[in-house]
User: Which sequence fits this backbone?
């Protein structure tokens, strides 16, 4: 897959898709991206997204070219550095506001598919539903335009790179917003109790989360070889997760990656309900959530709904999944 800042001439017509958000957003959009790819097999599929997501976009198998974007937070990026011919079709998977539609329309495509400005001739344009699950939302949106997308089509292949800690329980305490960060001391307490059962536990984090990872590691009695904070690129993190026994985190991008790679996961939710961003309802994934009024996902303190989740609840969920996986593996071996 190319990362193209100049958008070179192409013999094929182009579909330009705007989803310039984060890792979890891109992974939640994989079913929609694959639906678009199948619907327009003769087109070059161009994804407008941050350059750092190029490896993720490649792993989906649904994107030919990444057109790099830059914007603070979750704002709509400018696309005025597009220098090629107008795309034939532009698809807004970024949001429901007029700005994301407008930056695509400004490129002069033949068609623009968006929530904000439905095509005038369309008999039943899609309507935005605020409480809809993210995967379902974009598949339903495309379906209104005759593009079939399966919301369960979200798996990614395991990378060929070997894991730096095969069979470990991976604990990821960080999140983009403090509102979605369960207390580090509780992560450390759960990690310590998992270690006491004989499991290897490792801690992961992104750049700037070194202190958070250190707190968890110290509480759990982990050494330097068990800390991967700011040291793994996407391929390295994928390799670690693909061969992990379990992934434990809050509602963050790596949690979506764990689901996409098919490993057991425990995800802690608050302030946003798993009904909006949670894993598929299968036996391999547990979403912990205490019901209540949704809070501010960008708050500067852990959300009260998140902090209601206790270390005992998390440990019980983790041990239950690990036992179930062991039983499943044993049954397959005798099978």
Assistant:
């Amino acid at each position: 897959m190319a990362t193209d800042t100049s958008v070179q001439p192409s013999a094929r017509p182009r579909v330009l898709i705007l989803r310039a958000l984060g890792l979890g957003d891109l992974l939640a959009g994989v079913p929609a991206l694959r639906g678009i790819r199948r619907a327009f097999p003769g087109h070059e599929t161009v994804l407008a997204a941050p350059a750092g997501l190029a490896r993720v976009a490649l792993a989906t198998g649904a994107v030919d070219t990444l057109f790099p974007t830059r914007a603070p937070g979750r704002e709509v990026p400018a696309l005025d550095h597009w220098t090629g011919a107008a795309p034939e079709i532009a698809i807004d998977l970024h949001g429901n506001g007029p700005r994301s539609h407008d930056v695509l329309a400004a490129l002069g495509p033949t068609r623009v598919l968006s929530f904000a400005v439905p095509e005038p001739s369309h008999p039943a344009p899609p309507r935005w539903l605020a409480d809809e699950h993210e995967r379902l939302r974009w598949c339903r949106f495309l379906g209104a335009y005759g593009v079939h997308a399966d919301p369960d089509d979200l798996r990614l292949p395991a990378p060929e790179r070997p894991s730096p800690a095969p069979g470990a329980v991976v604990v990821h305490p960080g999140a983009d917003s403090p509102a979605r960060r369960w207390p580090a001391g509780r992560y450390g307490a759960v990690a310590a109790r998992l270690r006491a059962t004989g499991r290897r536990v490792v801690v992961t984090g992104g750049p700037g989360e070194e202190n958070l990872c250190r707190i968890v590691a110290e509480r759990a009695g982990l050494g330097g070889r068990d800390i991967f904070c700011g040291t793994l690129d996407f391929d390295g993190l994928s390799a670690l997760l693909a061969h992990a026994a379990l992934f434990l985190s809050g509602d963050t991008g790596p949690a979506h990656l764990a689901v996409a790679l098919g490993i057991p996961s425990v995800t802690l939710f608050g302030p946003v309900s798993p009904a909006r961003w949670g894993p598929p309802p299968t036996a391999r994934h547990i979403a912990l959530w205490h019901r209540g009024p949704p809070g501010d996902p960008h708050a500067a303190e852990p959300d009260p709904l998140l902090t209601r989740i206790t270390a005992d609840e998390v440990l019980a969920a983790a041990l239950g999944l690990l036992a179930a996986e062991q039983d499943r593996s044993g049954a397959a071996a005798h099978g």
